[in-house]
Amino acid sequence: RGLTDISLLERFIHLRYVDLSKNKLQDLSPLRSLTQLLWLKVDGNLLTSASMQELPYLQVISFDRNHIKDLEGITHPLLTNLSLKENKIQTVLGLSHDQLSSLQVLELRGNKIKTTAGLGVSKLKKLYLVRD
User: Which PANTHER family does the UniProt record give (predicted)?
Assistant: First the structure.
């Protein structure tokens, strides 16, 4: 769709499911007011970071096929499923149990990860690291 600005969404504070895939987004800061958000999909955009203000009820995020280089700034306490397939991630540093205590599924397929050193998420049940 070619969206580059999503500031209009700031007014819709009760949104629970948002799919902004296949746009040209570089900034997700307007989503900070969506405190009831449960599910977010932003695949195929121009994002270079997955960092967002903490959303208290967010459970599922998909950042597939962006330009994300690291895992810093992902701090959602109820997040159970995080997908970052086909980005430019080289290290898993930045994910901590304190910030992601509910994370169970982590998808990192198609990245350039060389080591899992620094992966400190204790409830993880599924970890996908295949590099195609």
Answer: LEUCINE RICH REPEAT CONTAINING 23 (PTHR46652:SF8), LEUCINE-RICH REPEAT AND IQ DOMAIN-CONTAINING PROTEIN 1-RELATED (PTHR46652)
Q: CA nearest 41: which of 68, 58, 60, 59?
A: 60
Q: Where are the domains of the chain?
A: 1-131
At the second CATH level, the architecture of 1-131 is Alpha-Beta Horseshoe (3.80)
CA 57 to chain centre: 14
Please tell me the distance from the alpha carbon of residue 96 to that of residue 113, in angstroms, as a whole number.
Answer: 17
Give the chain's length. Answer: 132
> Nearest to residue 120, comparing CAs of 109, 132, 103?
103
User: Per residue in 40-82, pLDDT tens?
Assistant: 999 999 999 999 999 999 999 999 999 999 988 899 999 999 9
